[in-house]
């Protein structure tokens, strides 16, 4: 079964997308819709009346992530039976958050961006806000460059690493999508070739691993991650 942390990551993106004013809070009406969608994609039976009651309008105002977590844990995550498709959850949350970031003018398609988003969630640690550290960026970019049949430019990466280290040593998901979409490590690459490379890495790191989880060859995505990568916490 997919680990709870891997379920929380796309939900976190969805919550963040609803927080338009960046206050850390979301209106109850929006959370009611989000919860309803989560019940649907996670295939959890529920009573609409209880959902309406919990998120009824009152004078308490919007809800923070901390305020939503008890409901999310008790009424949604604790009731998951494992008979859902994690990719349905990913697509639902992606649809919600990507429309807030749909103005990218890049070499990649929306489908490519979704696949990078999934890879980011897989490689990121389960602390929030979600970030990907330089070691994981290098791991992903090396796989992508290899997938498109190109040579790894160590000097270019060293320069990029120095620039990133001068800032915060990590990227959020939209920065990673932009890094790939702008072709920083794949200069001169045709759009179709880049798309095929993204799909190959996505197939390996996401779809193939999900098959292993489903077949109980590994217990969770996190188990694969911990056994594959050495994580260095950001400073």
Task: Please write out the topology.
Elements: H1 4-18, E1 25-26, H2 28-41, H3 48-54, E2 63-64, H4 65-76, H5 86-98, H6 110-123, E3 132-133, H7 134-147, H8 154-165, E4 170-171, H9 173-181, H10 191-214, H11 221-228
Antiparallel strand pairs: 1-2, 3-4
Helix pairs in contact: 1-5, 6-9, 6-10, 7-10
Would you tell me the overall average pLDDT? Answer: 85
Class from secondary-structure proportions = mainly alpha
Oligomer: single chain
The helicity comes to 55-70%
Assign an overall shape.
globular
Beta fraction:
under 5%
Protein name: Switching B cell complex subunit SWAP70a
Organism: Astyanax mexicanus (Blind cave fish)
GO cellular component, one term: nucleus
Pfam families: EF-hand_SWAP70_N
Commentary on this structure:
- By secondary structure, the chain is mainly alpha-helical.
- It has two domains: 4-79, Recoverin, domain 1 (Orthogonal Bundle); 104-228.
- It has helices at residues 4-18, 28-41, 48-54, 65-76, 86-98, 110-123, 134-147, 154-165, 173-181, 191-214, 221-228, and strands at 25-26, 63-64, 132-133, 170-171.
- A two-stranded antiparallel ribbon has the order 1-2. A two-stranded antiparallel ribbon has the order 3-4.
- Helix 7 (134-147) packs across helix 10.
- The model is unreliable at 221-235 (pLDDT under 50).
In short, what is this structure?
The protein is mainly α and 235 residues long. It has helices at 4-18, 28-41, 48-54, 65-76, 86-98, 110-123, 134-147, 154-165, 173-181, 191-214, 221-228, and strands spanning 25-26, 63-64, 132-133, 170-171. A two-stranded antiparallel sheet has the order 1-2. Strands 3-4 form a two-stranded antiparallel sheet.
């Amino acid at each position: 079964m997919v680990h709870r942390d891997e379920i929380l990551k796309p939900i976190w993106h969805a919550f963040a997308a609803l927080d338009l004013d960046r206050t850390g809070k979301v209106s109850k009406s929006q959370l009611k819709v989000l919860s309803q969608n989560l019940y649907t994609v996670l295939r959890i039976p529920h009573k609409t009346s209880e959902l309406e009651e919990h998120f009824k309008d009152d004078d308490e105002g919007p809800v923070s992530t901390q305020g939503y977590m008890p409901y999310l844990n008790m009424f949604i995550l604790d009731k998951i039976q494992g008979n859902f498709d994690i990719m349905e959850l990913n697509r639902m949350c992606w649809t919600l958050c990507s429309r807030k970031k749909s103005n990218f003018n890049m070499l990649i398609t929306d489908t490519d961006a979704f696949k990078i988003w999934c890879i980011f969630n897989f490689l990121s640690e389960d602390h929030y806000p979600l970030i990907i550290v330089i070691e994981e960026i290098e791991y992903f970019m090396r796989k992508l460059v290899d997938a498109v049949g190109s040579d790894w430019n160590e000097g270019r990466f060293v320069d990029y690493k120095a620039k990133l280290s001068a800032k915060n040593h990590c990227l959020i998901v939209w920065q990673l999508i932009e890094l790939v979409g702008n072709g920083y490590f794949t200069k001169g690459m045709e759009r179709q070739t880049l798309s095929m490379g993204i799909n190959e890495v996505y197939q390996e790191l996401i779809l193939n691993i999900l098959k292993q989880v489903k077949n109980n060859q590994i217990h969770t995505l996190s188990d694969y991650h911990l056994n594959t990568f050495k994580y260095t916490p950001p400073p």
